[in-house]
Amino acid sequence: MHMSHEALVFTKRVISQTSWLEDKKLHLVLDLDHTLVHTIKSSQLYESEKYLTEEVGSRKDLWRFNSGFPEESLIKLRPFVHQFLKECSEMFSMYVYTKGGCDYAQVVLELIDPEKIYFGNRVITRRESPGLKTLDLVLADERGVVIVDDKCSVWPHDKKNLLQIAKYKYFGDQSCSFSECKKKRDESEEKGPLDIVLRFLKDVHNEFFCDWSRKDLDSVDVRPLLKEISSRWKHKA
């Protein structure tokens, strides 16, 4: 049984306002691929990168999976991802929204949220959303939702909610030699894109809830705030 549009809007508003009032939390929608992880089929690795398959057992940021899938793949966690999720969970109720399949999403979530502390069952995949991404599927008032994704084009109707992050690409550098790839540099933990986004989100959270007791719940909206803080950060840069 589907809710009417009016009932859905009302439900979203109640959920969000309860979260704002009781927990002082906004909602955060996170992409997976090229945002929190980079995944590649092992067969697509360049010769100079194939040594990485031998490092899987000795690294905490590199994983291999093939059970239930057509072929073996490698998953590389983005630097700072665990700390990012931990700190974001204190300010936001979080969703995963990926264009990957349900089984693949579960593999990644076993690595970044095995106890379902951060996302619970708030996971949207290609099965639920075969087309473009939309906040219609997120059970939260759009006025209190922030999206973090490396692609702007997949959110045609929700760009005002979007904070675009630099694309994470660890695999697939054809230009480096074997010796260079052995010394492959990764993003910084302390000053990389996830750290920058986290600091931005802290500003958003702090300013949204600033002087909260004086605000009218029907008038608050995170979207103008995202635009204002983005403009401020550009001037600082």
TrEMBL record:
Q: Which PROSITE patterns match?
A: FCP1
GO molecular function annotation: RNA polymerase II CTD heptapeptide repeat phosphatase activity
Is Hydrolase there in the keyword field?
A: yes
Q: FCP1 homology domain: from which residue to which, for each copy?
A: 21-189
Gene Ontology CC annotations of this record: nucleus
Where is this gene product found?
Nucleus
According to its UniProt record, this protein's enzyme class is hydrolase
Which transformation does this protein catalyse, written as a reaction?
O-phospho-L-threonyl-[protein] + H2O = L-threonyl-[protein] + phosphate; O-phospho-L-seryl-[protein] + H2O = L-seryl-[protein] + phosphate
Quick one: where is this thing mainly located?
A: nucleus
Task: Supply the InterPro entries for this chain.
Answer: Fcp1, FCP1_dom, FCP1_euk
> Which Pfam family, any one of them, does this sequence belong to?
NIF
Could you tell me which SMART domains the record lists for this protein? CPDc (SM00577)
Q: Which UniProt keywords apply?
A: Hydrolase, Nucleus
> Origin, by domain of life?
Eukaryota
- This entry's Enzyme Commission designation comes to 3.1.3.16
Functional note: This promotes the activity of RNA polymerase II.
- Tell me what this protein is called: RNA polymerase II C-terminal domain phosphatase-like
Which organism is this protein's natural source? Answer: Arabidopsis suecica (Swedish thale-cress)
